[in-house]
Design a protein that fits this description.
single chain, 292 residues, alpha+beta, SH3 type barrels, 2 domains, 10-stranded antiparallel beta sheet, 4 helices, 12 strands
């Protein structure tokens, strides 16, 4: 059943209240954990003087510390789920508005800012011990039978002038299963183009960021050829990974293939995880920045 504006607002309000409560719980848990950590540090200093007694105390403190950390982690993960719920509700309302013909016009500068924020706030996947990184997290591609949902962001291979093909940033309108094709909108409001494309001309963008600290293997390695969204544009171009994100908030540093530079590559530029995807060649490339 479609969400009304009133029901969506109420659901968001309920989740915001729950999130506020969780934030207080997390802070309380953090303070308890901090006190226990200080006790562990003090016990560690005493190990040199009374190993037997202090060792037993240390084991108990460490056991308690692990339990406390697990409880804090559970609270943080629950809070993140509430945030994602809010995002999903807002996303559903936006899709409903678009389907009703109420698509808003976004100025170029605002669009670039929106894309940046969207990448920065993309959910961060932090794996548990031995947990496998899921598809569409970081550099992990979608499974072959995956179907992107309406409103999802994708890279779409479209024809431009003189039949050259370009990978553009687009939003899924629908998947037509009978034809095995997608209907997508060019994200660039100035173009206002809608395309019908075969599934092989669509690459779903990551739905989660990979955490370099816990899941560095889910990132593209240095020297990998990729496609990346050129800063302040809505087009993907061929690039080489020059530097990986070192933290969850950092971006890739990439070198775009560009014939206008003597060595054939642009200076290092930063691109968010969400907009760095597996490289796919095209039939024809245009002049200037190459690799589309």
């Amino acid at each position: 059943m479609p969400l009304t504006a009133e029901s969506a607002a109420q659901q968001i309000q309920d989740r915001l209240k729950a999130l506020q409560s969780l934030i207080h719980d997390i802070e309380d848990e953090r303070r308890r954990n901090e006190a226990n950590i200080n006790s562990i540090l003090r016990a560690q200093e005493k190990l040199n003087y009374d190993d037997r007694t202090t060792s037993k105390v240390m084991k108990n403190l460490l056991k308690t510390g692990l339990q406390d950390a697990a409880e804090e982690e559970a609270l943080i993960r629950e809070a993140l789920l509430k945030i994602q719920d809010i995002r999903n509700i807002r996303h559903e309302r936006r899709i409903q508005a678009r389907n009703a013909g109420n698509k808003e016009t976004i100025r170029r500068g605002a669009l670039m800012k929106m894309l940046q924020i969207s990448a920065q706030t993309l959910p961060l996947f932090v794996s548990k011990p031995s947990e496998k990184v899921p598809p569409l997290c970081g550099a992990v591609p979608a499974e072959s039978n995956y179907i992107a949902k309406p409103g999802d962001m994708v890279a779409a291979l479209v024809k431009g002038v003189e039949d050259e093909e370009n990978w553009i940033l687009a939003e899924v309108v629908q998947f037509m299963s009978g034809q095995n094709k997608y209907e997508v909108d060019d994200i660039d409001e100035e173009q206002k183009d809608r395309h019908i494309l075969s599934k092989r001309k669509i690459i779903p963008l990551p739905l989660m960021r990979a955490n370099p600290t816990t899941d560095g293997h889910a990132l593209f390695s240095k020297g990998t050829m990729v496609m990346a969204l050129y800063p302040q544009t809505t087009c993907f171009y061929k690039a080489i990974v020059n530097k990986l994100p070192a933290s969850a908030t950092e971006e890739y540093e990439v070198l775009f293939e560009d014939a206008s530079y003597a060595d054939g590559y642009s200076p290092p530029l930063s691109v968010a995880q969400r907009y760095v995807i597996t490289y796919k060649s095209t039939k024809k490339v245009s002049g200037g920045l190459s690799g589309t």
